UniProtKB/TrEMBL annotation:
Keywords: Signal. Belongs to the UPF0065 (bug) family. The keyword tRNA-binding does not apply. This is Tripartite tricarboxylate transporter substrate-binding protein. Residues 1-19 form the signal peptide. It comes from Aquincola agrisoli. The keyword Oxidoreductase does not apply.
Amino acid sequence: MKKFLVGGALAAVSAAVWAQYPSKPITIVVPFTAGGPTDKVGRDLAEALRKPLGATVIIENVGGAGGTLGAAKVAKAAPDGYTLLLHHIGMATSPSLYRSLPYKTLDDFEYLGLVNEVPMTLIGRPTLPANTYPELVKWLEANKGKVNLANAGLGAASHLCGLLFQSTVKIDMTTVPYKGTAPAMNDLLGGQVDIMCDQTTNTSGQIEAGKVKAFAVTTTQRLKPAALAKLPTLDESGLKGFNVTIWHGLYAPKGTPAATLEKINTALRAALKDADFIKREEALGAVIVTDNRVGGAEHKKFVEAEIEKWSPVIKAAGQYAD
């Protein structure tokens, strides 16, 4: 009888603790340095989550190793709902890019929901002879083996988009990796490299200012922002089915209680309807996710499909990290 009472008391205390969640600040780990596009999304999301969660939400930047250091930290964190992870497409590409990961992508996290999708743009140096996508293709074919394709480093959005573009058009290019988007963009503006495929969060300003040649967007539908609305899609330009977006999702350590996950997901759904959050994301060219991938189960299915999509592309390129 005493054992039953003790067990019942512990269960009651446990239930009370989870019912009080959150009772202290929540940390969202962004696995990249401050100031980048994922950090921007994270800070916008943190602001939008504060009201529906009723708690302070803090961003912690844990950069390094293509986002895997920050992801590993969350995988090993206490499963209490106070340490979360905001990660981009690297969640699905790291299993193929890295020979060894300190976590299991599909096993060591609770999937909370997708946040947004950021389109990509194919751009070129301002002195490039081509002005349209058909002209670009002709120029690429005439300069096989001489074209320099810039990216922000192994596993970066620009690296992944560049890999898929090369494999789709079947034109060999020289990949030039940089330590971040800023130096890659600087060399593109200066004419040291020829083309780059990067997120609208990084390219919209340069396109609007006319500082780069803009050829196409990577979504299957044209984009709404004024600076990008006139750009054709690669799909309509002849690369049927070409569709690359840099999505962001929210995760918790494996074993986080279901009741806590439900509270976070409810808050996430409210945040994605927040007018200020929507305005900030749309200004970046991002599209807020509103379909069933906002739920944990569909979010995980989506990541599984992305792993299957990118694995053969990355393996064919033979570009790995230790």
